[in-house]
């Protein structure tokens, strides 16, 4: 095995969450119930009862300053207010659940992208894909990179488990193409492979006949997830062998598909798959795919062979009984190239964490490539979820989006400046995140209180699987959601996230560590100025407005500490710019919207990497 790996090209370019929000059931005109999974408590609003521990808002206090929407709705202005159906927190159907012209967004690549002359066949094997199976940033990255490579003329397919929770209506041209057998734990499991198209990207959905991938969500089913992803990794290779598919690149993502490189080199490469080369992207080093030797053996390889320091043993368990295997470490050792999602995070992973030794030993094939965002899906000029469209050259309609969200969530709202973009005195801060320790939970809870204290508004959209964290944020929601300045929504909605980014004046990302981060990139795309902690990809994408060493780079407000005072300092400066320097603020908004955060440039680095390891016939 080692000799085999060393014969492969290794030179690497140096630059190189969804709670089920259900539609409401109308019981009577005066009593409307919204149904959620795992209902816990009842929250009284002014006119209606809402049942949920997730979504608790109250109509805004009638004494709070508000926009005269009736006057606006009856007026004819170039801003299009008269054509908008304005929402209310009392609406039977939440405003983000309204029907839109098309949920599935079929997108074409930028017309000015030059096609590559040296084309490849690229296969992604992943546990997530936006928007049909999205939990975090992994799904966005896979879809964005796949689309960018397609726009350059490459052939791209995405392999994804056919989770039971995937809505088949969101996959165009869905058709069963193969039924074949794939191995698991001593037997062969009948497996269906479906082809389809998701937002213009070809997908192959793998559906075993057993209980794997059954459940209401992408993760957290009643099956053993680790064993399910071991099966999925082998099933993808088995499909390629059965169909004679020989891609140039098999690109695997995270621990869930970390076993695939081991299966490829030590099994399928000795059978019929000769051409493919393996690329692994590590999106978050926090998750290792730890398993026992016995569990690993269920994929058909002998787990005891891989329990060595040179292969896949979890270094933290060396000398323990029993020692464990790490799928992520195995993927690092057996892949031809390994990527993480920002240059700064690469440096951090080489200096800390138990995998640092493995990464140092394989440094020649390890590089950091900054993520981009899918600027077709995330485009305020065409976004189907927004009540009004805007771009860097015409940002006045961003104000319309802000008032739309404020009204829909019952937040206080000031008057709308007709015909020009002029920020009012109440900035709206948005934090869209998984509620996990990595994201700086203590800083998020502090920001909720501090933003209210200094006269701003804040919306937190996120969810958690930790019951303790859930209780803490439920208590904060109970405390703040009855007022006119804070909304804490313990859920995730793709539609609402688009609306919140468009409405936000600032996007807060106070992560303790952040491999790349997409929230700040999406926020900037939608004219929300980032307030971030300096770590990982945040340090590579956001530069402080008051950093005199590189004033031309300034595009946000940055703090370094993990304490509340450091966050206060950043928020104070951002609020000061917003309130006291309106012209400079408008210039910042236009500047961040004009920054190229797309996959166009980043995809080129991945393609160069693919070419460096591919086998030429």
Automatic annotation (TrEMBL):
<comment type="similarity">
    <text>Belongs to the glycosyltransferase 1 family. Bacterial/plant glycogen synthase subfamily.</text>
</comment>
<keyword id="KW-0934">Plastid</keyword>
<comment type="pathway">
    <text>Glycan biosynthesis; starch biosynthesis.</text>
</comment>
<dbReference type="InterPro" id="IPR011835">
    <property type="entry name" value="GS/SS"/>
</dbReference>
<keyword id="KW-0808">Transferase</keyword>
<dbReference type="GO" id="GO:0009507">
    <property type="term" value="C:chloroplast"/>
</dbReference>
<dbReference type="InterPro" id="IPR001296">
    <property type="entry name" value="Glyco_trans_1"/>
</dbReference>
<keyword id="KW-0035">Amyloplast</keyword>
<keyword id="KW-0150">Chloroplast</keyword>
<dbReference type="GO" id="GO:0019252">
    <property type="term" value="P:starch biosynthetic process"/>
</dbReference>
<keyword id="KW-0750">Starch biosynthesis</keyword>
<dbReference type="InterPro" id="IPR013534">
    <property type="entry name" value="Starch_synth_cat_dom"/>
</dbReference>
<feature type="domain" description="Glycosyl transferase family 1">
    <location>
        <begin position="423"/>
        <end position="575"/>
    </location>
</feature>
<keyword id="KW-0328">Glycosyltransferase</keyword>
<dbReference type="GO" id="GO:0009011">
    <property type="term" value="F:alpha-1,4-glucan glucosyltransferase (ADP-glucose donor) activity"/>
</dbReference>
<keyword id="KW-0809">Transit peptide</keyword>
<dbReference type="GO" id="GO:0009501">
    <property type="term" value="C:amyloplast"/>
</dbReference>
<dbReference type="Pfam" id="PF00534">
    <property type="entry name" value="Glycos_transf_1"/>
</dbReference>
<feature type="domain" description="Starch synthase catalytic">
    <location>
        <begin position="121"/>
        <end position="349"/>
    </location>
</feature>
<dbReference type="Pfam" id="PF08323">
    <property type="entry name" value="Glyco_transf_5"/>
</dbReference>
<protein>
    <recommendedName>
        <fullName>Starch synthase, chloroplastic/amyloplastic</fullName>
        <ecNumber>2.4.1.-</ecNumber>
    </recommendedName>
</protein>
